[in-house]
Structures are given as C-alpha cells and as structure tokens.
Amino acid sequence: MAFAGKRLKGLIAATFTPMTSNSDINLAAIEQYVDYLVQKQHIRNIFVNGTTGEGMSLSVHERKSLAEEWVKQARGKMNNVIVHVGCLSLSDSKDLAAHAASCGADAISTVCPSFLKPSSLDALVLYLKEVASAAPSLPFYYYHIPRLTGITYQIYELLGKVKKNIPSFRGVKFSDVNLMDFSLCVSEYKEFDCLYGVDEQLLGALAFGAHGAVGSTYNYLGKKNGDMMAAFEEGNLLKARKIQCSLQEFLIFVFDMGWGLAEFKDIMSQVSGIPLGPSRLPLYSSMKFDHHDNIKTKMLKLDLI
Ligand SMILES: CC(=O)N[C@@H]([C@@H](O)[C@H](O)[C@H](O)CO)[C@@H](O)CC(=O)C(=O)O
Question: CB within 6 Å of ligand 1 — which residues?
Fold first, then answer.
C-alpha cells in the first residue's frame, strides 16, 4: 500500500500539462519540470491531470501516459504523486484509478461529474465509492471545486458519510472560499487530510488548521508560499501576512488583466524557463510577448522572484 498511515501535508503543486506548439502532450518536458519544482521551488508533492493540468480536456490515453511519466520522473525526488482521475464517465474514472495504482501513484483524487450531476449527497457518496473501489490500495481524496463543477454540498456533511462507506478515503482537496465549511472539516474529522485550494487565501485556511494546500501558483511561487507557511508555523504572523498580501497583489494584477488558467501556464513557462507550450482549446491565452516584462517587473517589485 502506497502511504498507509502517512499524512499528506505541505504544499502540493497542481501541475500544468506540458504541450507542444500543436497542443499535443509533451512528455519530454516532465523530467525538467520535476527538477525545477524540487530544486527551485522546494516542492515535493504534485497533483497531476487536475484543473491546472487540463485533465478534463485530455483523452484517457493521454492521461495514462502523463500519469506514468510523472510517476517515473518523480520517483526518488518527490514524496507524493496524486493523480486526478475525474471524468464525465464513471468507467473512464475507474479505468484511470486502476491505472494510477498499477503505475505506482501515491494517491488518487476525483471531482464529481458535473454535466449530469448527483441528485443528492448520498448519490455523490455512491459515485465516489465506485471510483475508489477501482484502486482500493490507494488513498482517495475528494476534489471539491464548486465554482467549476456547480456541485455545492457542504463538505463536512460529505465527510460524515464517506467515513462509513469508503475505507480508502483520506481527505479532501478543498478549492472553495467557504472557510467555515473548511474549518468544520478540519475540526470534526481529524483523521482526514484537509488540503486547501484557493492560493490567494491560504493563510486564512492555515489559521483554521489546513494540513496542506494544492494549487497552480505553487508551481512558480512554491518557495514564497513555503516561506509564508514557515512564518505561520513559527508564529510570525506579520511576516506571513506580508507574504500573503504580496501574493494577493500579484494575483489581483493577473485577474485585472482578465487572465486565467491559459495565462497562468504562460507565466509558469516564463518564470521557470521550461517551454510548457500553449493550453488546449477551449482555453486560449491572450498574453502577448510584451506582457512578459510587465509580469517580471511586477513579481520583482513584490519580492516574489
Ligand atoms: C480554479 C482553479 O484553477 N483553482 C486552482 C487554484 O490554484 C487557483 O489557480 C489559484 O488559487 C489562483 O486563483 C486550484 O484550486 C486548482 C487545482 O488545484 C488543480 O489544478 O487541480
């Protein structure tokens, strides 16, 4: 069993999927990507094929190839590779879950399908139980991202139900701003790992006892976020707040430009120097070459790089 008894904590980068200029997957860039995360950003955990990785825009075959390559390249360098297996089709998700177990992933996670949605919390639990059953030896995490899925059940209620129903269930990746629900998960279900997923307010989640965090910005701002977490743990709230505010100011700059995931991928390519390629349609980056200098200037001004 992968990490029986081991808790998932700290920063987890939700990786971008390297692509060629034609938006085909580019497995060759993954080795350099892993080394960059470990050496420059001090990141030792990755969440692959998730939102940032455009998992839902990839074929099952591509997702399997990517999972295999991430696991292969992370071996001996990273602590955990968590593979997102969420799909619209339950059988595809089960296929991906079984594949993740066979290729040596450390854990799996899934969103719930969001085209045809579960009609109740019990239906969601039944769905998650089915996915988890395809990889019973792997720790299983529910991926809550209501802004994208439209599935808005209270997660602390879900945890009460999965506790009795899914033996491999280990926690939640909580990508929502509802810190009261998050706090209830942490305080009422101490046996589960509660990983926060809204990078711009991680400090708030740490105050509520978050065990770790999964996010896109940890790819290129992992070290800075690590400094913030260390300051928080040392009780240096002033320092932690200063760093969080700089990170927020950077993200406000990005959002004010109307940018999203496709542009985040461009930012990662610029900051890391790794050519990650474009995103796959329907994502499309509106970033122009002369924006690159603005990004760098902003990051330098905020002491982020
Ligand atoms: C909607 C979205 O993409 N949220 C990101 C955040 O890391 C987000 O990019 C960040 O907080 C900036 O808004 C993560 O929660 C997603 C994530 O962890 C994933 O890619 O699976």
Answer: 14, 47, 50-52, 175, 197-200, 214-217, 251, 261
3-state helix, strand, coil in the chain (%, to 5): 50, 15, 35
Give yes or no for a contact between 154 and 181, defined as CB atoms under 8 angstroms apart.
Answer: yes
CATH number of 10-222: 3.20.20.70
**Which residue puts its alpha carbon closest to atom 10 of ligand 1?**
199
Choice among 33, 36, 143, 189 that is catalytic: 143
Q: Average pLDDT in the 227-231 region?
A: 98
Q: What is the pLDDT of residues 15-47, one digit of tens each?
A: 999 999 999 999 999 999 999 999 999 999 999
DSSP states along 139-185 = -EEEEE-HHHH-----HHHHHHHHHHH-TTEEEEEE-SS-HHHHHHH
* Predicted-assembly ipTM surpassing the 0.90 threshold: yes
Q: Which of the 8 DSSP states describes residue 115?
A: S
Do 173 and 214 contact (CB within 8 A), yes or no? Answer: yes
Beta strand pairing status for 169-174 and 107-110? unpaired
pLDDT at residue 271, as a whole number = 96
Going by the annotation, the residues of the binding site for pyruvate are: 52, 214
In tens, the pLDDT along 259-272 reads: 999 999 999 999 99
**Domain range list for the chain:** 10-222
Binding-site annotation: residue ranges: 52, 214
Within a 10 A sphere around the Cβ of 223, how many other Cβ atoms?
16
Tokens of 123: 């239906």
CA distance 255 to 199: 13
- Annotated catalytic, 284? no
Q: How far is CA 123 from CA 36, 109, 120, 127, in A?
A: 41, 17, 5, 6
Give residue 169 CA to ligand 1 midpoint distance, Å. 22
Q: Is 153 a catalytic residue?
A: no
Other C-beta atoms closer than 10 Å to the C-beta of 273 total 10
